[in-house]
């Protein structure tokens, strides 16, 4: 839901012509599935369609379910899985199964608060939905007014215990509030998304929790054609991108759209960013400067940090010389083993754009913990990561 939240808000907030919409969100998954839990698709009453749940194999059925929700105003859960009997039936040909929450949202009355908050709201830490059961009266998020005490979803703007407990008072009965708040808060701290099942007498109350944390940070060192191509290629990945170079003449921000441009010596910037907490275990540093007086200090700094990826561009001779200089600077072999140099996968890349693809391909492989990479046709495992049941 969070990936299309801003678009849904804007549609409902149009002053002259608000557009109702329905949102389909994957709330649980089993087996091999194309998209993870939390992925959403938006369907507007005007026919607009944004997002995808499966890459195409269940979109038609989900579209019809969203149109039905717009007509009835009721939320529902739908299941989709592999069909052995008919290869063209509604199902996931990759062999997995999905449970999808369908939610309609209508524009609020004049003066009332939107069920999705306002466009000016800060990015939420999580979107928490109480899933409908067959016995529930079909309804969507309640507007302010007589039904405000029985909403079906809330936005959390933080992961503190009091914030979570205060928000969940609108979703849970008092006897489940303490246990539910503790479990939701733990999911937010760990940036987990999934469905939380709470026993409620002879039945259960199910909460779908979708967490959002800040994007992983990609630091590109080197304001040149290769840095420019890498920034451009990385933009669709949803990363926070910083381009760092100490040369004022080369660091025109308009040349690197989508990136924060920092004019500083890269090793000094990296040390300060780590001190501020702007780097974490998911962060990546790509050194594309081709200049030993820049490369060695920034690599020495990066390799001492707990980050996911450190890579440096250059020939094999340059790599040999760099590693020698890093050893002389006190870098041990364990740290040097983390250095991806020469940077990127061996794809036969030559141009800056091709090299950017090779670098991002290596980053994806590292993030997926793939020690070797081969064509999919030569493998035998699932194409998509197998997802354990989240319910």
Itemize the secondary structure elements and their pairings.
Layout (H helix, E strand, L loop, with lengths): L4 H8 L8 E12 L7 E5 L4 E3 L7 H14 L3 E6 L15 E9 L20 E5 L22 E4 L4 H8 L5 H16 L4 E7 L2 E9 L5 E5 L3 H10 L5 E6 L14 E4 L2 H11 L7 E4 L4 H11 L6 E4 L3 H13 L4 H4 L2 E2 L11 H16 L18 E2 L4
Parallel strand pairs: 10-11, 10-13, 11-12, 13-14, 14-15
Antiparallel strand pairs: 1-2, 1-5, 1-16, 2-3, 4-5, 6-7, 6-9, 8-9
Helix pairs in contact: 3-4, 5-10, 6-7
How do you describe this structure in short?
This protein is α/β, with parallel strands linked by helices and about 400 residues long. It has 10 helices and 16 strands. Strand 8 and strand 9 form a beta hairpin.
Question: Key features?
Answer:
391 residues, alpha/beta
Give your account of this protein's structure.
Residues 19-81 form the XdhC- CoxI domain. InterPro entries: MoCofactor_Util/Proc, XdhC_CoxI, XdhC_Rossmann_dom. Residues 218-363 form the XdhC Rossmann domain. This is XdhC family protein. This protein is of the alpha/beta class. Helix content is 28%, strand content 22%. It is built from ten helices and 16 strands. The protein has helices at 5-12, 59-72, 161-168, 174-189, 225-234, 266-276, 292-302, 316-328, 333-336, 352-367; strands at 21-32, 40-44, 49-51, 76-81, 97-105, 126-130, 153-156, 194-200, 203-211, 217-221, 240-245, 260-263, 284-287, 309-312, 339-340, 386-387. Strands 1, 2, 3, 4, 5 and 16 form a six-stranded antiparallel β-sheet that branches. α3 (161-168) crosses α4 and α5 packs across α10 (352-367). The longest helix is centred in the middle third of the chain and has 16 residues, at 174-189. It is elongated. It starts with a helix and ends with a strand.
